[in-house]
Amino acid sequence: MGLLISYAILSIAFSFLCSILEAVLLSVTPTYVEIEAQKGTAKGLALKEMKADIDRPLSAILTLNTIAHTVGAMGVGAAAATIWANSAPLFTVPGLDIPVTPEVVVAVLMTLAILLLSEIIPKTIGASYWKSLTGFTVSSIKIIMFLLTPLVWVSQKITQLLKSPGHGSVLSRQDFATMADISVKTGVIKKGESRIINNLLTFNTVQAKDIMTPRTVVQAAAENMAIEKFYDAHENIRFSRIPIFKGNKDSINGFVLKDELLDNIIKKRGASPLSSIKRDIMIVNELMSLPDLFNQLMEKREHIALVVDEFGGMSGIVTMEDVIETLLGLEIVDELDGIADMQALARKNWEKRAKILGILGDEEKGA
Q1: CA nearest 12: which of 141, 128, 115, 133?
Q2: 47, 33 in Cβ contact below 8 A?
Q3: In the chain, what is the greatest distance between 2 CA atoms, to the nearest angstrom?
Q4: What is the pLDDT of residues 141-179, one digit of tens each?
Q5: Of 145, 147, 120, 93, residue with least CA distance to 19
Q6: CB of 116 closer than 8 Å to CB of 21
Q7: Is residue 323 a contact partner of residue 208, using CB atoms and an 8 Å limit?
Q8: C-alpha dist (Å) from residue 197 to 68, 211, 363, 365
Q9: Residue 118 carries which DSSP code?
Q10: pLDDT digit string (tens) for 23-33?
Q11: The model scores a pTM over 0.85
Q12: Cα(290)–Cα(296) distance, integer angstroms
């Protein structure tokens, strides 16, 4: 009887340990691994190495777990057969006439013990308290991998042969988006923050043509127009940068700053043409992705760009404000935009754009 109990306890104990180690290893988040690795601790570096090649530690854990189950089952079964070799059945299952011997009872109890004590309970503990058990897990796995090196090597080779060629990153963009939505429901982050995260994840799929102001509604001025004449005709203009053209609006060749325009009027230079204060305008292709557009605007310290099609023709105008609005999912209104109907127009145009991009839902439109 003592041998039977010893086999059972050892089998369940090793299996309990393996289940905890497996649960902890799989529960450790990539963020935690990077933070610990950046600290330069032995635990952090070892953990990063294990997560980078997770097949090795998992193979070691599963190998030991299988050995524990197999040896334990064989030991318990042999001991039970020796103890109750000549024992009569304890009872017969009613209606089936199946005799239930002590060996059958032991097998059933062992199965239940393995299920509860070496699967459900340890894996729940490991998944719930993985952060405090990480140090113990790393040390234990190192020992197991060293002791079972040959078996781990064979198991790893088999795993590599069976692994799908498309096996890659653990987390996809959709996973991050889903986690953001879940975090809103659990109160970890706010709805606005989740919207920004989702917009950021789709940022590279949006192109300049999707957020630009189309050429048909671009407000521009002829470069030979006098500064004062333009100001008198557009005294309440809300744009801080006005594109200028030579000949017709399709020939945009620069822009002027509203502040410089007002400064020249104050300094009695209103009769000068707009071309006298013209600045060069950056040109981008309409198919340029938003990350590339944002980077170019930042590198060249520009706030406005001319968008052209594949033939070099003008498609529209895009600004840094457009890029940021797309990322945030919100309209940015300049502090000088005091006219209510202009703000309403800006909001209406933004809602149309956001709805096309899928950034703004129908339920938010009326908010």
Answers
A1: 115
A2: yes
A3: 119
A4: 999 988 888 888 887 777 777 765 555 555 677 777 787
A5: 120
A6: no
A7: no
A8: 46, 18, 19, 20
A9: I
A10: 999 888 888 88
A11: no
A12: 10
